[in-house]
Amino acid sequence: MTHTIQIKRGTRAQIEAAKAAGQLRDGEPYLIIDEARLAVGLSSNGYSSFAKDGDNTDIKSLTGITGGISTVDYVQFDLGAAIQSAIGKLNWNDTDGTLEFGLKGGNVTLQIGQEQVIRVRNESGSTITDGQAVYITGSTGNHLNVTRAIANSETTRSKTPTIVTENIANNNEGFATTAGIVRGINTTGIPEGSAVWLSPTTAGGLTATKPSAPNHAVLIGWCIRSHAVNGSIFVHISNGWELEELHNVDIDSPTAGQVLAYNQSTGLWENTTVNIADEKVAVTPEGVPGYLWGSTQNDGVLRATASIHIQKDASNSYIELAVGDVDFGTF
Question: What is the pLDDT of residue 75?
Answer without folding.
Answer: 85
